Amino acid sequence: MIVLLLAGCAQPALRGTGDLGLIIERAAGRVKLIETTGRRELASIEGLGDLAHASVVYSRDGRYAYVFGRDGGLTKVDLLRASVERRVIQAGNSIGGAISQDGRLIAVANYEPGGVRIFDAATLEPLADIPSAYGDGTRRAKVVGITDASGSRFVFSLFEAGEIWIVDASAPRAPRVEKIRDIGKQPYDGFVTPNGRYYIAGLFGEDGLALVDLWNPEAGARRILDGYGRGAEPMPVYKMPHLRGWAVAGGLAVLPAIGRNEVLLLDTVTWREAGRIAVHGQPVFAIAQPGGRRVWVNF
Q1: Cα–Cα distance measured from residue 176 to residue 174, given in angstroms and rounded to the nearest whole number
Q2: pTM of the model
Q3: What is the pLDDT of residues 26-61, one digit of tens each?
Q4: CB-side neighbour CA atoms (13 Å) of 127
Q5: Where exactly are the structural domains of the chain?
Q6: Euclidean distance between CA atoms 132 and 141, whole angstroms
Q7: What is the C-alpha to C-alpha distance for residues 2 and 152, in angstroms, rounded to an integer?
């Protein structure tokens, strides 16, 4: 009995993962593990490479975080052990990624070489490589705005090609790709609405956005907020907005306007402009308070 008790004392304390998260320390190439109940730092985890444009997704059970680095690194972090479990360099320059809704697959969006690579979430074994070839097939576009959708699907945009691709990874070693062309000039980011139905890509090359109904992708892309900056001289853009930070609250999407010191309000039923709010600079992120009463904007 004494031996059993001593062995039990040596075990780490049991805890859940619902209040754990990571903070990216981009300059140091590491992450801080925090818990949000007591608002404490628990550990610092090293060896994650170039985190200049890092993003994170979490496993369904909240135990693992997948960190996408600018150097093409994909790192699986164990939050309970506060350690790197696996790490692969899968490309030369990547911009983010997504996890499938069933938690089995990780998809990484790459600038160089352009395309998307799909991995097993448990082992980080590569399963598929989808080059972002367009036009005559000799060029590859930068992949941006990648997100997960229902049914083991991933959706993303091709910057130079002006296209949105929907990948069905139900058979992950042989994914099917549906391509929606001529959506507008230079889509630079995108997101899926909270109900999972619509994918929206912002356009850098022209004023407007492209909307795809994921319940009916055969209908193609619909232009919304077309020409929202018409009649005004655009300002120089010093920092590209990030659409993953768009806030959807109370039936409105609050999104950054490119080259303008304002955020746009978009009705999520009609997809028409519902108003504008002037801010003190060009907005980059818009984040909603969980209850939806307030939206924070930085610039």
Answers
A1: 7
A2: 0.92
A3: 999 999 999 999 999 999 999 999 999 899 999 999
A4: 19
A5: 17-79, 90-227, 242-299
A6: 6
A7: 50
